[in-house]
Amino acid sequence: MNNSQLFEESLQYFPGGVNSSSHSFYTVSGNPLFIKSAKGSHLTDVENKNFIDLHSQGILGHQHPEIIHAIQTQLQNGFSSGTPSELEIELAKIIIENASNSEKIQFFSSESQACLNAIKLARAFNGKSKILKFSGGYHGDSESLLKDSGAGNSLSKSLDSKGIPKGISDLTLVSEFNNIEDLEDIFRVHSQEISAVILEPVATNMGCIPAEMLFLQKIRELCDKSQSLLIFDETKTGFRLDFGGSQNVFNINADITVLGNSVGGNFPFGAVVSSEKIMNQAAHYGDVFSEGIPNGNSLAFAAGIATLNFIKNNPDFYQKLNKKAENLDFEIGKILNSKNISHRINRKASIMSLFFHTNKVSNFQEALASNTSLYNNFFHFMLENGVFLPPNALKSWFVSDAINDSEIDKIIETVGKFQYS
Fold it and tell me: Considering only CA atoms, which of 411, 405, 408 is closest in space to residue 378?
């Protein structure tokens, strides 16, 4: 069966034919690709067409030999016994020894579960109820965090998910990303109610939009004054920007850090990291309850250990990876300038986005104002020429270590053939 036939069949079983908005081609129009295999930097669909992958988030690409070896070894010993394992201690040691403000850690089976538990820990710690997030920020599928949640919901009439009682929604405050004045206004009114501020230090669900330094510093200052906690959602950026995370890059300490698939070797994975005082509230020691037999998935631990050890054992890893993204950034910008196509490229390390926009893009509203119909044309042109970009103008591109120089050159060459219309 080809992609169109499989999509028609999938519509009989799944709402919209897919199981995640990030799998859908709804915002760019057309049918999604059904991928039968992925290796290195390439995806292969059911029609045997190959694509260079800038959509998936695995920092080492697909089927990295050391990850495959670790998984195959662990498979011989089982992978979900519902009990502790030595592997989880080994992974915890690597993370805690390298991530800032890390004394204890708790593992989960998903990023959503980890973000939800970070919120519970914050509320239990200071006894406050409200959470402040930023417009366009996505922090998993928990009720209190699906307010104004970014790219997956950007074409809906409302930016808030339905099905959430008003009483729960009212506990979530929303501010504009990178807007210090708006942030101060909200704290002026709600400082005694705000338990925590949660954000991605590099937003990835409104396109790639790095937080500005003065903005992060102001958040830290206001949290300290109000005895609110700062939560960094590093499910996409953790150990991708730096061996330890964004706190090292921005020199801003978060009270709680949430890690995700980028640390778990691209397996379903989540983790919450914080000080001993905050983490000791967890139910098996304190009074914040959490449960989940799959939280001890040894395959994810084995893949995570292999991923982090590979990065650690290659001292120039980040320099080489970031150079690839820097090359894409510079050359694509040069080509679009020569074609007089208005655009902005945002990039932080190996995460980037292309906005067809005349002005700076520093928050979700500015991202929404970009020319998404032109991006849709660009997306399909690149796809037809073997480059798989995110099927949404407001999603980020992730450059993996698996992409080689010749593939970077092919991406640049393909962009050069794009005609503005």
Answer: 411
Inter-CA distances, 382 with 314, 346, 375, 409, 410, Å: 32, 19, 10, 13, 11
Q: How far apart are CA 332 and CA 323, in angstroms?
A: 14
Under 8 Å CB-to-CB from 322, ≥6 apart: which residues?
349, 350
**Number of Cβ atoms within 10 Å of the Cβ of 121:** 26
Rounded to the nearest 10°, the torsion over CA 191, 125, 237, 150 is: -50
User: Per-residue pLDDT tens for 179-228?
Assistant: 999 999 999 999 999 999 999 999 999 999 999 999 999 999 999 999 99
Whether residue 137 has pLDDT greater than 60 = yes
**Contact in structure between 394 and 151 (CB atoms under 8 Å):** yes
Cα-Cα-Cα-Cα dihedral sign, residues 106, 111, 115, 117: negative
Tell me how far the alpha carbon of residue 369 is from its chain's centroid: 22
Distance CA 37, CA 17 (A): 20
**DSSP letters along 39-58, please?**
EBTEEEETT--EEEESS---
**What percent of the chain has a predicted confidence (pLDDT) above 90?**
82
Provide mean pLDDT across the span 346-358: 97
Higher-pLDDT residue of 290, 30: 30
Let me know: does 261 contact 107? Beta carbons within 8 Å.
no
Name the β-bridge partners of 232. Answer: 199, 257
What value, to the nearest 5°, has the Cα angle with vertex 169 and ends 192 and 394? 105
Can you tell me the distance from the alpha carbon of 27 to that of 49, in angstroms, rounded to the nearest whole number?
22
pTM, rounded to two decimals: 0.96
The DSSP bridge partners found for residue 209 are 203
